[in-house]
Design goal:
single chain; 5 strands; 324 residues
Length: 324
């Protein structure tokens, strides 16, 4: 009967006992450099695995959770004739995907896109955003931002647009209509891809967008129908009319009042209903205004209060996304 190893302890296992079933990491560059570092200095951090039953020969097998690059580096050394068939590993229990995310996020060596994709994959398993936040020891807002950024990054990838900007920066574009995203992201990247660049691009976008929308939504002027002009009176008739008007000031006063438009010709007021795009843009503008205000505040408590307003605004956006 195989010995049952304690979980959470580091021990050596054979490379042949490790099963790979995919990982959220996508970048495996510099394996040779890592292999040389391990050969010179040893393995600084063990890999993480979980039990995966027994092989047909009764040998314990382990599913790789974190450490794909380190495992590949050991395999590279073995291919060059070095004896690196045994590797230090920490054996853990639990679901693979959350364990992968936790291990990688704690090491902070995932790209923003890989981290967002991992959170999105967790959501596909059927758990809620609140449960994801609990498993990762993060806030629900952190999860919401990653899911929103993942949606944007996926859309851009479909348009053959790749961006390496961080999640918090990409998340600033979560309220922008998809048709406007490619141009705005390209402009933001051209200006450096920083948070300041994103705020500048979004501010200019809103300023250019609002005057056009207001012009489109403004009701047309209420023109009254023109009164048909009477034929020009003769000199004698004109004289008689002038005398009548002079002798009857009340009639003169009434004739100065413009004719009232018939009820059937009155214009219908435009629909005042707001659409989601308007709401998102207004909230985004509100967030930007608070961020600009924070830059001039030195009091810690005041800054905390303003940041709480920003967090509340993001929560409203996340709620609206679930309702639309």
């Amino acid at each position: 009967m195989p010995k049952i190893e304690p979980t959470g302890l580091t021990q050596k296992i054979s490379l042949s006992q490790i099963i790979e079933t995919g990982n959220i990491r996508e970048d495996y560059r510099d394996i040779e450099e890592l292999a040389q570092s391990i050969k010179d200095n040893g393995l600084m951090q063990p890999i993480v695995v979980k039990r995966a039953g027994l092989s047909p020969d009764g040998i314990p097998q382990y599913e790789l959770i974190a450490g794909n690059r380190r495992k590949r580096a050991f395999e590279y050394l073995c291919s060059k004739g070095d004896d690196f068939t045994m590797i230090d590993a920490v054996i853990k229990t639990g679901d693979k995907l959350p364990l992968q995310l936790i291990e990688n996020i704690q090491r902070s060596d995932l790209t923003a896109a890989e981290r967002e994709n991992g959170v999105a994959e967790m959501l596909k398993t059927g758990i809620t955003q609140r449960e994801i936040a609990a498993k990762l020891a993060k806030s629900e807002q952190w999860v919401s931002k990653h899911l929103a950024s993942h949606k944007i990054r996926t859309f851009l990838a479909q348009k053959n647009i790749n961006t390496e900007c961080e999640t918090n920066i990409l998340n600033m574009f979560r309220t922008i209509p998809e048709n406007d995203l490619p141009a705005l992201i390209a402009e933001m990247e051209q200006q450096g891809g920083t948070r300041t660049a994103a705020e500048k691009v979004l501010s200019a976008y809103k300023q250019n967008r609002n005057p056009q929308e207001k012009a489109e939504q403004a009701p047309p002027p209420k023109d009254y129908p023109l009164k048909e002009s009477a034929p020009h009176p003769s000199a004698s008739e004109s004289g008689r009319q002038d005398t009548a008007v002079h002798n009857n000031p009340a009639q003169n006063k009434i004739s100065a009042i413009p004719p009232k438009a018939p009820e059937t010709e009155r214009l219908i007021e435009p629909d005042k209903t707001l659409n989601a795009k308007d709401v998102f843009c207004e909230i985004n503008a509100y967030i930007l205004s608070i961020k600009n205000k924070i830059e001039s505040i030195s009091d810690i408590e005041a800054c905390t209060l303003q940041n709480a307003k920003i967090e509340a605004a993001y929560d409203i956006i996340a709620l609206l996304h679930t309702k639309l």
